[in-house]
Amino acid sequence: MPKPFEAVRISERVYWVGAVDWEIRNFHGYSTRRGTTYNAYLVLADEITLIDTVKAPFMGELMSRIASVVDPRDIKVVVSNHAEMDHSGSLPDVVKAVKPREVIASTMGAKALADHYHDLTGVVAVKDGERKSLGNMSLTFLETRMLHWPDSMVSYLAEEEILFSQDAFGMHLASHERFDDEIDPAVLEQEARKYYANILMPFSPVVTKALARFAELALPTKLVAPDHGPIWRKDIRGITESYGRWAAQRPTRKAVVAYDTMWKSTALMARAIGDGLAGAGAVPVLLPLSSADRSEVATEVLDAGALLVGSPTINGQMFPTVADALTYLKGLKPANLVGAAFGSYGWSGEGALHVHEALKDMKVELVAEPLRVKYVPSEEHLMSARNLGRDVATRLLRT
Ligand code: FEO
Questions:
Q1: Residues in a beta bridge with 37
Q2: What is the pLDDT of residue 196?
Q3: Is the CB of 55 under 6 A from ligand 1?
Q4: Cα-flanking dihedrals φ and ψ of residue 128, to 5°?
Q5: 87 is catalytic
Q6: Cα 288 to ligand 1 centre (Å)
Q7: Domain map (residue ranges) of the chain
Q8: Is CATH 3.60.15.10 what the domain over 8-248 is classified as, yes or no?
């Protein structure tokens, strides 16, 4: 039955029926320069089952892909692994159209769905570890609370050895290539890292525990099918190891220097700091906040060992782009960082002082008092900036 949007077969009895969003560039504040996908999966068991849905505007695409394989009204079970609206936004309308016998979510998921969709009733809560027969196949549900919402769970289809992992192991990458081995590994690494930094970093201790639990369960897994981006079939081990490494938040020699500038004085300081960092053996990454957005900063900070932040003073405050990046980063709880604050000013010079306090609040180990320069840095001031870079690098390389 030809349809404008067709399902993609990913294993003998499972199809991808999601949507590709080529347009999105801002996902609740996270810059998605390569777009994204909202993945949903159709399991052709005796009891035909839909796993997750898509963001509301893409409901037509989802239904078309389902209808390219089965009559949507033959779906008996709908599983909601995660209540966030990019996966549940079309759930109420799907339920109305399909009239499944059962909608399943975790205990917290059933509550979250009730709080989102007040007309959606009768969601059945499943317990952690519960197994549900679909006739000739079965799904086992495993709670993954706070990865990354309280409701999050994953579903395991033993007969096809597929783990439907919701957001975990996902990435924002619009593509019609459905599998990891069809995509440039450098792009996969970059987007998976960015996704981890911006979505999962604050829950890193939970990630570590979840990875240990899954290692213990040792579920035979041919495919890891997340709710965004490609399905992992070739390098499941690689992405799992990357998660282990990112969750450990081990510092590297990388030193992120994030700054904004009004008349190039703070930028000059940043450049001298960068040279000082490099000269003492660190690897500086300078991020001018006039062009680097908060989610790029978070991505670089994920495996950094140092964070230096520079701000001019504007009307007694730090620069707005700097405040934005610091507020965002604080919520992501980066760990094991050394650092310092710096900035140029004209009259009162609170900007760098406020940055210093914000970094302290983030538990960054501060190597020096804020380096502040009035108006334009002289050669001597730039030497002080270089020396600050050197001192941060020395402290970093001692850890
Ligand atoms: Fe892709 Fe947490 O939603």
A1: 20
A2: 98
A3: no
A4: -60, 125
A5: no
A6: 29
A7: 8-248, 255-397
A8: yes
Instruction: Give catalytic status of residue 82 as yes or no.
Output: yes
What is 255-397's CATH topology? Rossmann fold (3.40.50)
In the set 87, 148, 172, 354, the catalytic residue is: 148
28 catalytic? Reply is yes
**Cβ-based neighbours of 60, under 8 Å, separated by 6 or more:** 5
Kindly indicate the confidence band of residue 122, based on its pLDDT and cuts at 50, 70 and 90: confident
Query: Is any ligand 1 atom within 6 A of the Cβ of residue 172?
Result: no
For residue 331, give both structure tokens: 């919520």
Q: Which helix (H) or strand (E) holds 391?
A: helix 379-398
Q: Which helix (H) or strand (E) holds 67?
A: helix 59-67
Nearest residue (by CA) to ligand 1, atom 3, is: 84
What is the 345 CA–ligand 1 centroid distance (Å)? 41
52 lines ligand 1 (CB under 6 A): no
Instruction: Tell me which residue has its CA closest to atom 1 in ligand 1.
Output: 167
pLDDT at 399 exceeding the cut of 80: no
Q: How does residue 130 score in pLDDT terms, banded at 50, 70 and 90? A: very high
- Separation between Cα atoms, residue 142 and residue 247, nearest integer Å: 20
Interhelix angle for 265-279 vs 379-398, to 10°?
Answer: 40
Is it true that the peptide bond before 148 is cis, omega within 30 degrees of 0? yes
Both tokens of 131, joined, read 């197994």
Mean model confidence pLDDT for the chain: 97
